[in-house]
Amino acid sequence: MSLLIHHIGLLATPTGSRAKSGDGQGDILLIEDAYVLIEGSTILRVGQGEPEETADERIDAGGCLVTPGLIDAHTHLVFGGWREHELSLKLQGVSYLEILARGGGILSTVRATREASEEELEEKAAKALDTMLRHGTTTCEAKSGYGLDLETELKQLRVVRRLAKRQKVELVSTFMGAHALPKEHADDREGYIRLLTDEILPAVAREGLAEFCDVFCESGVFTAAESRRILLRAQALGLRSKIHADEIEAIGGSELAGEIGAVTAEHLIAATDGGIDALARGGVIACLLPATSLYLGKPYARAREMVRRGVPVCVATDFNPGSCPGSSLQLAMNLACWYCRLLPAEVLTAVTLNAAAAIGREKEIGTLERGKRADLVLWNCDNLDHLFYRFGENLAGTVIKEGRVAAG
Ligand code: IZC
Ligand code: ZN
Hints:
The chain is of the alpha/beta class and about 400 residues long. It is built from 15 helices and 16 strands. The chain has helices at about 85-90, 95-100, 105-115, 120-135, 150-165, 190-205, 225-235, 255-260, 275-280, 290-295, 305-310, 330-340, 345-350, 355-360, 385-390; strands at about 1-15, 30-40, 40-50, 55-60, 65-70, 70, 135-145, 170-180, 210-215, 240-245, 265, 285-290, 315, 375-380, 395-400, 405.
């Protein structure tokens, strides 16, 4: 089955199959009056005007902007409950880490996730994915980390595996058992780290439930030395590394990411110049989450400095019930412009090709080029600047996933 999408006013896409950094971050391909010819689930050709071949089906894009499908490379997708009771606390000045230290925050979501059935977790996450798809997200990374015991961590990851089969957003799974110390190990850090490295990680690897392992390397959570131990054990079991680094305080997470060849370092709000250089040296992608800065009232990551120092920048939502209870990648894209000072073309690369590389999918998705998967968005606007200039409304029109209309 072939599908032609023609009369595209402007096609905007990064090119290639490697993360882009420096000047390359904003170096995108722009084609006016473009078409995309799709065969099955794959792009056959992208060009200008009309192709010579006929197609089984046609979609007239009516002069709109078309980009690759958005890729959300950082979410905590599967969780029980919400945390609206923290809103008033936060408004009264109680900090995110203080709420966690009092046994709330992540630990309250852990309680709700342990109590929830697999079916409940699955239905809830399926709804979130449906919303994301309608907003242009065609691929999404999903972390565990609200179980913090063998049974519930596996439960979360199995939910992701089932969701991957039953709905349209493509999912990439990350194990994040090192998200907090569970209450039963509050006075036994060593015991919990052993549980992770000796029992839970081997079980995750045995069942093939995750491609990545992530650690919350943060003051009061896991130290850089503990994070190193957990991530190296995960690497030995075949799981590539991600690190929540320098979100609130810089305690060596970026340096560790560079040292152990992590694929990504996440947040980086408090990253130092030395930390940014360590990322550049290690070829680590910076995964920035500006909607979390907005929600926690924190500064924004120094994206311009990262681009200047040669670090590829990715932008994602961080969708989770505590620090980012919203799944709009479009909002994160707006914030990346206004507060991280990235240009529209740079942000486009950040949520497509660099996001694909952040989840190990740069050869398959992230650009509109021959041989890549046909994931794309027809936007309700006709130029790239417009997409970033508007905010608070969903501008995604028709969303195509693997060559089929998935939403809109
Ligand atoms: O549930 O608070 N930062 N982990 C690290 C989170 C935010 C998610 C949460
Ligand atoms: Zn996160």
